[in-house]
């Protein structure tokens, strides 16, 4: 991002003395900024952001730049810094609002990529514990994908790819948690539905080996041996070194069964596609 690096700390400190004269005391909002240039107010905001324990203290300065010097280069910089300051303060809703305003007002600017990234990050950083509602995770995925697709050659796209994978894994973890809950209580069909989602929709995540093992367990409990054996076959082919494969293999062997593709279930189709390369 270009604007965060703009302006030296020395200049900010020099302007601090000017701005402090109208502040009426440390920590209080200055009564008037009209007598100061956009650069002086902006750099006081930078100083507050770097030195205050409350990132929101900087917002008032960036807001005043935008109010007093609209449509100026400093106003543009101040707007993206508002989004950054709010994000630092973990006020994610305000951060999204400021970032979106920047995108709407300056869609072709070089910092639009950073604004889009901040918008996505404001959702990503709110992803809560696995047990909570995953709506924010979906919004984070959508916003991160926009960064990746719209600004593929930027540093933000590279970071967004990593965070996208983590958020994707988070959704798979949610499905696994619910599936284990059903499995533990003997609701095998409901559990299978959750583990199937992981295998079909989140197969690139770290949760796929366990999902296949749990499918083996659930199908064996229902007496659906063909499906259990096929789940074990996929697990053994792709994740033979996984402890989940050893567990699934032991369960099958305990029933006198082999890990092999059998029948014509959805798992057999996955086996044909993933292992045999047959997509029809």
From TrEMBL:
UniProt cross-references to InterPro entries, sorted A to Z: BamD (IPR017689), BamD-like (IPR039565), TPR-like_helical_dom_sf (IPR011990)
CDD domains referenced in this protein's UniProt entry, alphabetically: BamD (cd15830)
UniProt entry keywords in alphabetical sequence: Cell outer membrane, Lipoprotein, Membrane, Palmitate, Signal
Top-rank taxon: Bacteria
One Pfam family linked to the record: YfiO
Annotated Gene Ontology cellular component terms: Bam protein complex
Protein location: Cell outer membrane
First and last residue of the signal peptide: 1-20
Location, primary (coarse class): membrane
Membrane topology, as annotated: Lipid-anchor
Outer membrane lipoprotein BamD-like domain boundaries: 37-231
GO biological process terms held by the UniProt record: Gram-negative-bacterium-type cell outer membrane assembly; protein insertion into membrane
Protein task: Part of the outer membrane protein assembly complex, which is involved in assembly and insertion of beta-barrel proteins into the outer membrane.
Assembly notes: Part of the Bam complex.
Protein family: Belongs to the BamD family.
HAMAP family, sorted: OM_assembly_BamD
PANTHER family, sorted: OUTER MEMBRANE PROTEIN ASSEMBLY FACTOR BAMD (PTHR37423:SF1), SOLUBLE LYTIC MUREIN TRANSGLYCOSYLASE-RELATED (PTHR37423)
Protein name (database record): Outer membrane protein assembly factor BamD
Protein source organism: Paracoccus denitrificans (strain Pd 1222)
């Amino acid at each position: 991002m270009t604007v965060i690096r703009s302006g030296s700390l020395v200049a900010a400190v020099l302007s601090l003395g000017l701005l402090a004269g109208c502040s009426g005391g440390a920590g209080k909002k200055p009564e008037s900024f009209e007598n100061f240039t956009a650069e002086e107010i902006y750099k006081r905001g930078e100083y507050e952001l770097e030195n205050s324990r409350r990132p929101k203290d900087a917002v008032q300065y960036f807001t005043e730049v935008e109010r007093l010097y609209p449509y100026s280069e400093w106003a543009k910089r101040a707007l993206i810094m508002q989004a950054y300051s709010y994000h630092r303060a973990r006020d994610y809703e305000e951060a999204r609002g400021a970032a979106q305003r920047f995108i709407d007002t300056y869609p072709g600017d070089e910092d639009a990529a950073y604004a889009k990234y901040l918008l996505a990050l404001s959702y990503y950083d709110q992803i809560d514990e696995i047990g909570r509602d995953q709506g924010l995770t979906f919004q984070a995925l959508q916003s991160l994908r926009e960064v990746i697709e719209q600004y593929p050659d930027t540093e933000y796209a590279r970071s967004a790819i990593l965070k996208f994978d983590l958020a994707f894994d988070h959704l798979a973890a949610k499905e696994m948690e619910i599936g284990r809950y059903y499995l533990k209580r003997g609701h095998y069909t409901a559990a299978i539905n959750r583990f199937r989602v992981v295998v079909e929709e989140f197969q690139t995540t770290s949760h796929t080996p366990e999902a296949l093992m749990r499918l083996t367990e659930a199908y064996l409990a229902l007496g659906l041996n063909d499906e259990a054996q096929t789940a074990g076959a996929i697990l053994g082919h792709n994740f033979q070194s996984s402890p989940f494969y050893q567990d699934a293999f032991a369960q099958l062997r305990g029933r006198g069964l082999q890990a092999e593709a059998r029948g014509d279930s959805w798992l057999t189709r996955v086996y044909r596609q993933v292992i045999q390369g047959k997509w029809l």
